[in-house]
Write a structure and sequence with these properties.
The complex is a heterodimer of chains A (about 325) and B (about 525). Chain A has about 325 residues and is mostly helical. Chain A has a domain at about 95-320: Orthogonal Bundle (MetI-like fold). Chain A has helices at about 1-30, 35-45, 50-60, 70-80, 95-130, 135-150, 150-165, 185-220, 225-230, 235-260, 270-275, 280-290, 295-320. In chain A, helix 5 crosses helix 8 (about 185-220), helix 7 (about 150-165) crosses helix 8 and helix 11 packs across helix 12. The termini of chain A are close together. Chain B is α+β, with helices and mostly antiparallel strands and about 525 residues long. Chain B folds into 3 domains: about 1-45, no CATH class; about 55-90 and about 305-530, MetI-like (MetI-like fold); about 95-105 and about 230-295, no CATH class. In chain B, about 50% of the residues lie in helices and about 20% in strands. Chain B has 17 helices and 17 strands. In chain B, the strands form 4 sheets. Chain B has a 5-stranded antiparallel beta sheet, with helices on one face. In chain B, strands 4-8-7-6-5 form a 5-stranded antiparallel beta sheet. In chain B, strand 5 and strand 6 (about 145-155) form a beta hairpin. Classes of the chains: A mainly alpha (about 325), B alpha+beta (about 525). The interface between A and B is large, with 49 and 43 residues.
Chain lengths: ~325, ~525
């Protein structure tokens, strides 16, 4: 087991190396005019250095004056020694901006995941136990609609109904106008109030796939021989479903949920941007659109690490929860 | 009973993966059954596997609804663009009556000055004259020179030196020439004002006789020469010449404190003018309602434009049709690129195994791990910065999306081929000495096609979603090309969100329906291809 984990970790490091290499090469292959553009913009800001100085600094900072491979190794060395550089867009160290924003995204992610689990799993199980019933069709269609719904469209609809027509929520932002004048408790409530619509958006858009996944797995389990045995023993249908079948359905569910745990930190790029919620997603969106290479590279590396970690956790959990699986 | 029978046949068929296997369904026609003997071949109806799949697919009502939606979308996008009377980027105009500033009027309350020819009458002297007028003195002296100010009529003062030389006049009524661009001589102005302010009806200047009417019109034998009025009226636009008659009528309206007055010009065109007094600057603005041609932006749904017009005054429905083309075509091309790469690499990995498999699967792992959305956003922003041509941009977008999306397909193909490779029919192809490429792509890949079709159908849906999201963020398809995503982009403007539902709701519904339909069809196809399914 330990050996397997260590092997997988090393393997993940290799994958990470190549993922970032591809990303680095892609960013490097953008015509240099892009960096020149940024240098020009930067030099035009009041009280800034001259264009050539900026250009030289930018090129030196990103190893643009070196070859692609040497530049990449330089970046990688900086990354692993914890030297992430300063963000151009936020003009503070990358780690600081990251630390400012990531926790809000994490809290949002946890809340969303909580609702996702308590809504999607029961509905998926009900749909599977009553296969081809009206409930099943309703659940399937709602799940598919959730998957097919464009985030921005759904967010706009929510805004139109709840912000514009009903006036319950603000259109944008994390805090209201009077935020500074409120006491701590009301400040908390104000933030919670502003997070309602983004969380609803994320929950509705994410329950679909988990619901379908639960349903498919539950159906598979319900067709298994041991369920037939359980029924043949004369167990009550309740016991068969919630005791025998559900536990077996949990195996893939735990795996997939465990695998998505690191994703809690990744933030919701689109949703946060739509509602201007200052989480890591919105911060990185602004950085990426603003041509902030240090922050973008850091964010991409961060996401890549989260993905790798998610895969690793899923694989390990798979062996942990299912005694039939032995890891080689 | 019939259904069960059929399913068993399909089940049997699935165990022999060669697609050429024919399925046999019995008892199709009870009448025919009576005529043939039991072992007569004609008694059984033969259905190909494809027909079986189709039959099972069409029995799934939800999937058929999905297919119908897709058919509608294709007709809407590809045929609709042809049938629509408008072009994709045709802009519409509306004429609306705009109150444009036409002229400005000011009542002259200051004295104005005019120097006599060859005399010094500069601003210092003028200031002295004002001083004399305000303090009611006849004489002012400046730098040892005395200036005599003599009132010669209502609002007319003559300024003379000690020796009686007239060096200039100060006056309140304004004399404007009737002919454009002509400057009036000092003598003419002086004589005209002298006559006008003293109520005379004729004067002689520069050897000519002129008459002055009570309204201030100065005429010679050749016609109108000038006009005297307390009001100064100037056109806003330099190419407009305000006729005498207009000025006269305007003065009447101004003195009556009218808000509106009508004027019929020499060509017989009557228009209304709105007069507004601005107390802050003590002048009047005269506005004329003129028909102006402007872009018909955000117009509500009407007979000509069923879904109104967008920000640029383009027909919304037509934009949606062309946008559908772009969205669907991008979905298909991206999926085709992914499919080609995925099938080739996945097929090779699955068939050869060993180090080839290892290498390709590691590449797949790497591509699986690339955060595609952030990367595409960065590339989109970079293309923005470099202002890439919208058409080339669209091409890049497709290439990038396709290049980032093949990993899942490769994994799918490899997994299937790994299990198929060991089966008897593959041993048969090997022993009959068929080329490797032929073995992979003619015998193995066709057996993966059902899974590929399902995966691609759903893949097109999600590609459309990604493209729409990017275009919504302004990083995907760019104006002048329409795509469903960039049509909704307008909703970023809160005013549009609140007031113009027809701008963004239809496009959103179209995206939702299309993606939903692709998913429904994909689901239905999966069930239809899967022989183990009970229905």
């Amino acid at each position: 087991m330990h050996k397997y984990i260590i092997k997988r970790l090393l393997y993940s490091v290799v994958i990470f190396f190549f993922v970032m290499l591809i990303i680095y090469v892609m960013l490097r292959c953008l015509p240099t005019s892009y960096i020149e553009n940024i240098a020009r913009q930067k030099s035009m800001q009041p009280g800034s250095k001259s264009y050539t100085e900026w250009l030289a600094q930018l090129e030196a900072a990103y190893g643009m004056d070196k070859g692609i491979i040497a530049g990449y190794l330089n970046w990688l060395g900086n990354f692993f020694t914890g030297n992430f550089g300063d963000s151009w867009y936020y003009t503070i160290p990358v780690v600081e901006e990251f630390n400012n924003t990531v926790w809000l995204s994490f809290i949002m992610g946890v809340i969303v995941m909580f609702f996702e689990l308590i809504i999607a799993i029961p509905l998926g199980i009900v749909a599977a136990t009553k296969q081809y019933s009206k409930t099943d069709y309703a659940v399937s269609v709602i799940a598919l609609a959730g998957i097919s719904l464009p985030t921005f469209f759904f967010a706009s609809l929510l805004k139109l109904v709840f912000s514009v027509k009903l006036g319950w929520f603000d259109l944008f932002g994390l805090v209201g106008r009077n935020y500074a004048r409120l006491d701590t408790w009301h400040q908390f409530l104000d933030k919670a109030h502003h997070l309602v619509l983004p969380i609803v958006t994320l929950v509705v858009l994410s329950i679909g796939s988990l619901m379908r996944y639960t349903r498919t797995n539950m159906l598979e389990v319900l067709n298994a021989d041991y369920i037939r045995t359980a029924r043949a023993k004369g167990l009550s249908e309740r016991k068969v479903i919630y005791h025998h079948a559900f536990r077996n359905t949990l195996i893939p569910l735990v795996t997939i949920v465990g695998g998505s745990l690191p994703g809690l930190f990744s933030g919701a790029l689109i949703t946060e941007t739509l509602y201007s919620i200052p989480g890591i997603g919105y911060a990185s969106y602004n950085a990426m659109v603003g041509g902030d290479i240090p922050f973008s590279m850091f964010y991409l590396a961060f996401i890549a690490i989260l993905t790798l970690l998610g895969n690793l956790i899923a694989d390990i959990l798979y062996a942990v929860v299912d005694p039939r699986v032995r890891l080689a | 009973m019939r259904e069960n029978n059929e399913d068993r046949k399909v089940l049997n068929g699935a165990e022999q993966p060669l697609p050429e296997t024919e399925e046999i369904v019995s008892g199709a026609d009870p009448v025919a059954e009576e005529e043939y003997s039991l072992n007569d071949d004609r008694r059984v109806k033969v259905l190909s596997p494809g027909a079986m799949v189709a039959k099972r697919f069409f029995r799934n009502r939800v999937a058929v609804v999905g297919l119908a939606i897709l058919a509608f979308m294709f007709l809407f996008s590809f045929l609709g663009g042809v049938l629509s009377p408008y072009r994709e980027d045709e802009q519409f105009y509306k004429t609306s009556l705009l109150k444009k500033e036409y002229a400005g009027a000011i009542k002259n309350e200051d004295v104005r000055f005019l120097g006599a020819p060859d005399q010094k009458f500069d601003s210092i002297i003028q200031a002295q004259v004002v001083l004399a007028l305000t303090t009611n003195r006849d004489t002012v002296s400046f730098m040892d020179v005395n200036y005599h100010v003599e009132k010669q009529g209502e609002g007319l003062y003559a300024v003379t030196l000690d020796d009686g030389t007239l060096i200039g006049i100060a006056f309140e009524d304004v004399v404007t020439s009737s002919r454009e661009g002509q400057t009036l001589s000092f003598e003419f102005v002086y004589q005209a004002l002298l006559a006008y302010s003293n109520g005379k009806d004729a004067f002689i200047a520069e050897g000519r006789e002129y008459t002055v009417s009570e309204g201030g019109l100065v005429e010679s034998a050749e016609g109108e020469a000038a006009f005297i009025s307390r009001y100064v009226i100037n056109p806003i636009s330099p190419d407009v010449f305000l006729s005498r008659q207009f000025q006269e009528e305007l003065v009447v309206a101004l003195e009556n404190n009218d808000d509106v007055f009508e004027f019929t010009d020499a060509d017989g065109v009557t228009s209304e003018y709105y007069i507004e007094y601005k107390p802050a600057v003590k002048n009047w603005a005269i506005r004329q309602e003129t028909p102006s041609r402007m872009y018909d932006t955000y117009s509500s749904p009407s007979k000509a434009h069923w879904l109104g017009t967008d920000r640029n005054g383009m027909d919304m429905l037509t934009r949606l049709m062309y946008g559908g083309r772009v969205s669907l075509v991008i979905g298909f091309i991206v999926e085709a690129i992914s499919l080609i790469i995925g099938v080739i690499l996945g097929g090779m990995a699955g068939y050869f195994g060993g180090w080839v498999d290892n290498l390709i699967m590691r590449i797949v792992d790497i591509f699986y791990c690339i955060p595609s959305m952030p990367l595409i956003i960065i590339l989109g922003a970079a293309m923005d910065a470099m202002s890439v041509d919208p058409q080339i941009r669209m091409l890049y977008l497709m290439l990038i999306l396709g290049f980032l999306g093949w990993a899942g397909l490769a994994r799918l193909v490899r997994g299937q081929i790994l299990s198929l490779r060991e089966q008897e029919f593959m041993v048969a192809t090997e022993s009959s000495g068929i080329r490797v490429s032929r073995r992979i792509f003619k015998h193995l890949v066709p057996n993966v096609i059902p899974q590929l079709i399902v995966s691609c159908t759903m893949g097109i849906g999600s590609t459309i979603l990604i493209e729409a999201t990017l275009s919504f963020l302004g990083l995907g398809v760019k104006f002048p090309f329409a795509s469903w995503g960039n049509i909704i982009n307008d909703v970023n403007d809160t005013f549009v969100l609140q007031n113009f539902w027809f701008i963004w709701i239809p496009a959103g519904v179209l995206i939702l329906l299309t993606v939903l339909a692709f998913n429904l069809v994909g689901d239905g196809l999966r069930d239809a291809f899967d022989p183990k399914m009970k229905r």
